[in-house]
Write a structure and sequence with these properties.
Blueprint (H helix, E strand, L loop, with lengths): L4 E10 L3 E9 L5 E9 L2 E6 L6 E8 L4 E5 L2 E3 L7 H13 L2 E12 L8 E11 L11 E6 L1 H9 L6 H14 L3
Parallel strand pairs: 4-9
Antiparallel strand pairs: 1-2, 2-3, 4-7, 5-6, 5-10, 8-9
């Protein structure tokens, strides 16, 4: 495969959760192109499954869509070197109040490979114990329990559009809900 070469990376804007850069790239035919790049420290998410086999979901307002969304619990890493397992455990407790006796990696998702390096490790959490939420001061999160069938219907009806949630629910269904 012919090589692409980054000639320059310039920071355009520094944000609270991401940085926006403009890259100058030499493409294999010798031409030079300008490409956008969004740097993200990464995130972790979790599919919490209760003893009845229901998935614990969070409903929260998302500014980018100007509406509430139904999602799996998730959050950004506290620094790019934080272990994603630790972040998943933290987000589970913060957003739902639950702790888990067992947590394992379900899948890794690169959200938007065309312009961002954001990577989300998604974990499965079982053996749940209820507790109280510990939300950030700018969070308002409602929790609910849903069957895999209910969530699958919501995905195909367009009610759930969040990519990490769709990937996580369908991966969980494929791996753990065999007839």
């Amino acid at each position: 495969m012919e090589e692409f070469k980054r000639l320059e990376r310039n920071l355009v804007a520094h944000g609270a959760i991401l940085d926006y850069y403009q890259d100058t790239i030499q493409i294999p035919n010798g031409n030079v192109a300008k490409w956008d790049f969004i740097k993200h420290n990464g995130a972790a998410a979790v599919v919490p499954v209760d003893d009845k086999g229901r998935l614990i979901m969070v409903k929260q307002y998302r500014n980018a869509l100007n509406r509430d969304t139904l999602e799996i619990p998730a959050g950004g890493l506290n620094g790019e070197n934080e272990p994603t397992r630790d972040a998943a455990i933290r987000e589970l407790k913060e957003e739902t109040g639950f702790t888990a006796r067992h947590i394992e990696l379900l899948l890794t998702l690169c959200t938007t490979v065309a312009y961002s390096n954001e990577k989300i490790d998604i974990y499965l959490a079982t053996g749940l114990s209820a507790g109280s939420q510990h939300l950030d001061e700018d969070e308002y999160v409602q929790i609910g329990a849903y069957t895999v069938e209910e969530l699958t219907e919501k995905i195909y009806a367009g009610e759930i559009q969040d990519a990490k949630t769709i990937a996580a629910v369908l991966a969980y269904k494929d791996k753990y809900c065999k007839d």
